Amino acid sequence: MLLMVYFLSLAAMFKDLKIFIYELPSEYNENWLSNKRCSNHLFASEVAIHRALLNADDFRTFDPNEADLFFVPVYVSCNFSTVNGSPTIVHARSLLFSAIQFITKNYPFWNRSQGFDHIFVASHDYGACFHAMEDRAIDNGIPEFLMNSILLQTFGVNYKHPCQDVENVLIPPYISPESIRKTLEKAPLTGNRDIMVFFRGKMEVHPKNVSGKFYSKRVRTEIWRRYKGDRRFFLQRHRFTGYQSEITRSVFCLCPLGWAPWSPRLVESVALGCVPVIIADGIRLPFSSAVKWSEISLTVAEREVGKLGQILEHVAATNLSTIQKNLWDPAVRRALLFNDHMQRGDATWQILTSLYKKLNRSYRRSRVPSQ
Asked: What is the pTM of this model?
């Protein structure tokens, strides 16, 4: 009942929220979709949000003069390296700047507010800095032409960081809701979980790379070193396309940092009912008003990774059932998944909630009037 009242009150709040979506030339978005990975990889929230907003009749306006906010649909993460197949965003700044030039040439609204009411998606590792490596991201900083805008970004930490020095809404990485649905059809949330602790991913024995940086701050290396022979831990260093089925068999899923603090494992763990064990000091998590992270996950300090076994044994013997009950609430899973057609409570809905709050807090007081 309380949940219904909550959604009805949000609907009432949203009745005046209007978003105008720029129609940009296809080289900024649609052309990239020729590669199917563009709409399905971990950075694909930029595509999913665009699609959801295009279908959001309650919030979309075709009259820019009545818009509260302007969405700029530029897909910067859909260029894949031919060397390792990973997304490459070296072209991001020039592509975004070109899009803004197009907007200012054809519309008056960017100059009216200097981009204050314009929204961009920065779904890759270091968000608004538009670079995948932290040292380069910090050196480059946030592009000056985006400093007044709102960035929807996956990167968030609780300490001061150059790549957060801009108005932002923290969003989850993209995981296909269809893949989650198919996996759950085969293995329900409350099914047999015969793996106590699960992690599949990069765990380098010698993690120092050519830049002198240590991958995962050696956290993943330490996990492998300490627990590779521990029967409680199911650790795999190689890719497996059916790994979601392993998550549904697991009680605890490790979510250690990689180069960046966040990981798609966090969303997959929550969506598939495995208690996420977050090992990334200072990470800031998305949609904290809708997802009570402290009630559905565990946080272990990077320096405490050597005590993982005893920490998880203690939780399993005390309050595991309470955590799982909270975690298996369908509303929690819904809040972290993007749908092409927005659903009440899903990730796009949470973004609109956050944007509406920002409007009430600052935008309506600060908007620069037309000249």
From this structure: 0.91
